[in-house]
């Protein structure tokens, strides 16, 4: 954020790497995108000018470069890095530098605007300038490069830090190729998570490595790498202000019991320096002997991987604080920043909910206090990308789903929206589709005792007020399924199909929340799932042709018809009343559904689920006779121009996809998933209809699906 409270957002969309500037209300001031750029981050100087950096997608990617720095004679298959300086007022390019010797991963600016970059060198042993530091062990492996630039974009020095050896390759990885949950770390590697500048101007680097021969100090806290074929360590290193000397270096992390040990992998994801000069380090570990302190919030490893937080006192060369933070499953702390009052603020994800170990977890923002860690839950993709403080003291949280949330501590208790997601996929994308069943999470959203919708007395539509709560989309009240103090399940009005953006507000007992600005897309499909898991993935809420519930022990017969249940398929024609219960003569979808896995699968029916509320969808398909996979995906065809998400970034609709299997839903590249109450589970019991009875049985214990995948 700049000094005026404007937000700088960077990432990757269908238009390539992008950087944009938003005003405090989320309106776009300017944006820039390049199809060949992969953004690593951005920074702001005291003049509010913006520095954008990252890596090219190809050696000759198109870009309006004004200069080339640290040229490399032969890049080979490597791609160069870049740094671009934009004028903060209008987004015009002041200079754009191609950095051939470095793929920058982290940046730091001092008060004068001097730039320090760190990242992977594009060659081995890397390029260093005269008088700059080079690790004695640097050789055949590409080291970590440290580069300093003037505010005008000219190179001051280039240093190199790293080793050349990892665990002996004679111990082959081939024996574990069948285990998809373990990754064999081929070859030496080193990364940079954060650069910090202390009051003396010294350069501190924090990151991860599996190199066993980093140059470490005699007084290193951990002189040897806890490395194996599957595990690496974190590291912390200090360099002189001119880049000529290594002043301190140590490994950080846990240990391993041998080359084949699958535990003890430590990754540092973020670091921050507080007002006293102490360094706070955050990341994830699978090791059981993290150097925790007696006042730790969590003293033992709880999941297969847990987040961690360490406080390093450089003056005393000791860890002043250390704690695990996690639950069952896979957990991590991804970001750490220092609040204006000096408290560390963390962002990350927990794979299971502490109050409900059967859920698929959530992302979170947490404050480290003397009494422990105070956590606020967010939806998946709602808080994993970045956190920063505005000049007014508000905490701004960014998620990889193009969602930005501003939070502020307060003694008052109005409703507060933290995130909006598809109720099936729990994907917080900053976008909704007409008729989509959504989950809104936050605080003080509704009554302390949850209230579910009822269809008693022959009622033919859901009410738009429940438990004293209403949800408005541009002033139109939405049908409500469930309300509580921390979650609301609602249905997006079909009238949103006429616009590209909508503003959503929650009213609880007449008190309005902050407004959530959401992009409107034609479709945002998600599949409902049950609580059952199969190979670490949730199982789709589906019925076999004989009416039994599909699952790992009750598989569909090849050639039979299977029904799955979903939401987010978009507009219907003719447009039904919001919240209406639909009969068997339901309106039709305005676009076709395709299923593949592998090859195209015959769709028998795709549209509103008969007897259910408008927005609940059903897809009947025929299982191929030669189906060999348990994973199917369905998609909606390409549609329309880019939309503006809540973050202000341009997100192309291109192709919306969601996974749905005859045995499971979800795609394995997502290692963490979220779960919430299935939105239809209670009120449906009052509808004793034959078709609904079968569907209700299948979905009675449904919870949202794991994330699908998006093209």
Low-confidence stretches at least 5 residues in length (pLDDT < 50)?
A: 175-181, 637-711
Strand tally is 53
Radius of gyration: 26 Å
Cα(first) to Cα(last) distance is 30 Å
Mean pLDDT across every amino acid position? 81
Task: Give the helix tally.
Answer: 1
Proportion of helical residues: under 10%
Overall form: globular
Overview of this protein structure:
By secondary structure, this protein is mainly beta. Strand 47 and strand 48 form a beta hairpin. It is globular, with a radius of gyration of 26 Å.
Secondary structure layout:
Layout: E1 7-13, E2 16-22, E3 28-34, E4 37-44, E5 50-56, E6 67-69, E7 81-86, E8 93-99, E9 102-109, E10 115-121, E11 144-149, E12 155-161, E13 190-197, E14 203-209, E15 233-239, E16 246-252, E17 266-273, E18 279-285, E19 306-313, E20 318-325, E21 332-338, E22 344-350, E23 362-369, E24 372-378, E25 386-389, E26 395-399, E27 403-407, E28 416-422, E29 431-432, E30 437-443, E31 451-452, E32 469-473, E33 476-477, E34 480-483, E35 487-491, E36 501-508, E37 511-512, E38 516-520, E39 526-534, E40 537-540, E41 542-543, E42 561-567, E43 572-573, E44 588-589, E45 594-596, E46 600-601, E47 603-608, E48 616-622, E49 633-636, E50 643-644, E51 650-651, E52 656-659, H1 690-699, E53 703-704
Parallel strand pairs: 6-8, 29-38
Antiparallel strand pairs: 1-2, 2-3, 4-5, 5-7, 7-8, 9-10, 10-11, 11-12, 13-14, 14-15, 15-16, 17-18, 18-19, 19-20, 21-22, 22-23, 23-24, 25-26, 26-27, 28-30, 30-35, 31-34, 32-33, 32-36, 34-35, 36-37, 36-38, 39-40, 39-42, 39-53, 41-42, 42-48, 43-44, 45-46, 45-49, 47-48, 49-52, 50-51
């Amino acid at each position: 954020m700049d000094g005026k409270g404007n937000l700088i957002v960077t990432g990757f969309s269908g238009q390539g790497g992008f950087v944009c500037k938003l005003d405090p209300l989320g309106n776009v001031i300017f944006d820039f995108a390049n199809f060949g750029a992969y953004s690593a981050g951005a920074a702001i100087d005291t003049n509010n000018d913006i520095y954008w950096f990252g890596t090219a997608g190809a050696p000759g990617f198109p870009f309006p470069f004004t200069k080339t720095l640290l040229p490399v004679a032969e890049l080979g298959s490597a791609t160069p890095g870049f740094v671009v300086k934009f004028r903060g007022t209008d987004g015009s390019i002041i200079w754009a530098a191609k950095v051939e010797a470095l793929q920058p991963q982290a940046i730091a600016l001092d008060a004068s605007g001097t730039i320090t970059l760190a990242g992977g060198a594009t060659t081995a042993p890397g390029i260093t300038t005269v008088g700059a530091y080079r690790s004695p062990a640097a050789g055949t492996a590409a080291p970590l490069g440290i580069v300093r630039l003037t505010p005008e974009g000219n190179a001051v020095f280039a240093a190199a830090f790293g080793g050349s050896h990892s665990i002996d390759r004679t111990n082959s990885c081939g024996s574990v190729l069948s285990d998809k949950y373990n990754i064999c770390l081929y070859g030496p590697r080193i990364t940079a998570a954060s650069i910090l500048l202390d009051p003396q101007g010294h350069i501190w680097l924090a990151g991860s490595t599996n190199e066993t021969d980093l140059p470490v100090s005699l007084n290193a806290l951990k002189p040897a790498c806890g490395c194996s074929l599957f595990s690496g360590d974190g590291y912390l290193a200090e360099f002189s202000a001119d880049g000529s000397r290594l002043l301190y270096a140590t490994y950080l992390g846990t240990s391993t019991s041998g080359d084949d040990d699958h535990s003890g992998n430590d990754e540092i994801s973020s670091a921050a320096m507080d007002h006293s000069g102490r360094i706070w380090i955050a990341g994830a570990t699978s090791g059981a002997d993290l150097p925790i302190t007696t006042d730790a919030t969590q003293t033992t490893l709880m999941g297969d991987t847990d987040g961690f937080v360490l406080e390093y006192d450089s003056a005393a060369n000791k860890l002043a604080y250390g704690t695990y933070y996690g639950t069952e499953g896979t957990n991590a702390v991804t970001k750490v920043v220092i609040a204006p009052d000096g408290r560390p603020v963390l962002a990350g994800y927990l794979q299971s909910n502490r109050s409900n170990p059967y859920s698929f977890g959530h992302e979170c923002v947490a404050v480290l206090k003397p009494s422990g860690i105070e956590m606020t839950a967010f939806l998946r993709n709602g808080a994993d990308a970045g956190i920063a403080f505005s000049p007014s003291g508000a905490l701004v949280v960014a998620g990889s789903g193009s969602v930005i949330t501003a939070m502020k501590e307060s003694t008052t208790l109005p409703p507060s929206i933290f995130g909006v997601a598809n109720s099936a996929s729990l994907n917080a994308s900053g976008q909704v589709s007409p008729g989509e069943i959504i989950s809104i999470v936050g605080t003080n959203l509704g009554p302390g005792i949850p209230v579910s919708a009822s269809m008693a007395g022959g009622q033919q539509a859901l009410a738009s007020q429940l438990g004293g709560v209403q949800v408005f989309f541009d002033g139109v009240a939405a049908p409500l399924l469930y309300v509580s103090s921390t979650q609301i399940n609602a249905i997006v009005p079909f009238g949103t199909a006429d616009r590209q953006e909508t503003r959503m507000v929650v009213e609880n007992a007449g008190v309005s929340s902050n407004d959530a600005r959401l992009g409107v897309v034609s479709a945002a499909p998600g599949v409902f799932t049950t609580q059952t898991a199969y190979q670490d993935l949730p199982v789709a809420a589906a019925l076999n042709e004989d009416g039994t519930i599909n699952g790992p022990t009750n598989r569909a017969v090849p050639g039979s018809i299977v029904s799955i249940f979903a939401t987010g398929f978009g507009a219907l024609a003719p447009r039904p009343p919001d919240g209406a219960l639909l009969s068997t003569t339901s309106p039709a979808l305005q676009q076709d559904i395709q299923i593949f896995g592998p090859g195209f699968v015959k769709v028998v029916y795709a549209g509103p689920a008969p007897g259910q509320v408008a927005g609940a969808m059903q897809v009947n398909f025929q299982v191929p006779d030669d189906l060999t996979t348990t994973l199917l995906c369905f998609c909606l065809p390409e549609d329309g121009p880019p939309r503006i998400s809540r973050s202000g970034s341009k997100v192309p609709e291109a192709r919306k996809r969601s996974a749905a299997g005859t045995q499971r839903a979800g795609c394995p590249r997502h290692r963490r998933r979220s779960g919430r109450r299935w939105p239809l589970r209670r009120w449906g019991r009052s509808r004793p209809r034959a078709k609904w009875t079968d569907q209700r049985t299948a979905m009675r214990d449904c919870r949202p699906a794991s994330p699908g995948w998006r093209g």
